[in-house]
Specification:
Its EC number is 2.3.1.286. It comes from Chloracidobacterium sp. N. Keywords: NAD, Transferase. The protein has 241 residues and is α/β, with parallel strands linked by helices. The protein contains ten helices and eleven strands. It has two domains: 149 residues, 3-Layer(aba) Sandwich (Rossmann fold); 80 residues, SIR2/SIRT2 'Small Domain', CATH 3.30.1600. The strands form three sheets. It has a six-stranded parallel beta sheet, with helices on both faces. The protein has a three-stranded antiparallel beta sheet with strand order 7-6-8, covered by helices on one side. It has a two-stranded antiparallel ribbon with strand order 2-3. Helix 8 runs parallel beside helix 9. The model has no long low-confidence stretch (mean pLDDT 96). The chain binds ligand BJW. The site of ligand BJW has 34 residues, from helix 2.
Length: 241
């Protein structure tokens, strides 16, 4: 990233009234949370994308929970990094500001962000297999797998697995807000998972400046107004203020 690129990004933000911050696993990488498509993204020999699939959950709910509770245990001690904190602190400086995250780790909330759409759910909740009722599940490791809700109903993790629908209305609301923003920051996502990856396109197609923060080039890079190469924790705090 050059100083010129950083200055341009800062100018776009200084002139903006409405901002959408679209985040993926990379924003949490510097907190110690593994990404999905990195070289170490396997568990018991399975790629993360297989462990996080509806196929595994339907076949073997206990093994699916072992994967999620393993991740919950990793996440328990993890804290927001300077990128999450800078995003949270920027919220009140704009007329309209929304975080749209693909992450299930809850770190934007921990950093203090108030307006968040979680497109892929939250790992700290369970959901009834029969009723769909949601339960907070802060304890990890869980005493029994699968955990159970009222009337002994088995719970599944309240996250969106491959092949599943996103929570009702979440994508639609994010798309509407993105299509009205002046700047969309795209932080730490490979942009390969749909429909989430359509959010930056909704912003761009409506005329917003779309600014990527990522150490690597991604599928989204050719469609960006600006791409800032580097780590979120280094770059994001320098974008605001
Ligand atoms: C840094 C950094 C640092 C590193 N700083 N950056 C259209 C076309 C093709 C396929 C489809 C399509 N529409 C739907 C599909 C199918 C499928 C899909 O997208 N497949 C593609 C992969 C091919 N989509 C779905 O199945 C979705 N559902 C759906 O479409 O429903 C409709 C339907 C229903 C039924 C039948 C048919 C249709 C649901 C997708 C759900 C995704 N779920 C997961 C798991 C969540 C639970 C869990 O946590 O386990 O969500 S998968 C995983 O990927 C997770 C993430 O949120 C998501 C995105 O990954 P992300 O965040 O981008 O992470 P990485 O690892 O890919 O990238 C990290 C980036 O960070 C990299 O670029 C690094 O360089 C960067 N980085 N360090 C900044 N320090």
């Amino acid at each position: 990233m050059t100083d010129d690129q950083l200055q341009q990004a800062r100018q776009y933000l200084a002139a903006a009234r409405r901002v959408v911050v679209f985040t993926g696993a990379g924003i949490s990488a510097e907190s110690g949370v593994p990404t999905f498509r990195g070289k170490d993204a396997t568990w018991k020999g399975m790629p993360a994308a297989v462990a996080s699939s509806i196929g595994l959950l339907e076949q073997d709910l206990t093994t699916a929970w072992e994967w999620f509770d393993y991740r919950r245990t990793l996440l328990k001690t993890v804290v927001p990094n300077p990128a999450h904190i800078a995003v949270a602190q920027a919220e009140t400086r704009f007329e309209d500001f929304l975080v749209v995250t693909q992450n299930v780790d809850g770190l934007h909330q921990k950093a203090g962000s108030q307006r968040i759409i979680e497109l892929h759910g939250n790992i700290w909740r369970g959901r009834g297999l029969r009723t769909g009722k949601r339960y907070p599940l802060p304890e990890t490791p869980l005493p029994t797998l699968p955990p159970r809700g009222d009337h002994d109903e088995p719970l599944r993790p309240d996250v969106v697995l491959f092949g599943e629908m996103l929570p009702a209305g979440a994508f639609e609301e994010a798309e509407i807000v993105a299509s009205r923003c002046d700047v969309c920051l795209v932080i730490g996502t490979s942009g390969v998972v749909y429909p989430a990856a359509l959010i930056p396109f909704a912003a761009r197609d409506a005329g917003a400046a779309v600014i990527e923060v990522n150490p690597e080039s991604t599928d989204l890079t050719p469609h960006m107004t600006l791409s800032l190469r580097g780590r979120a924790g280094d770059i994001v705090p320098r974008l605001f203020g």
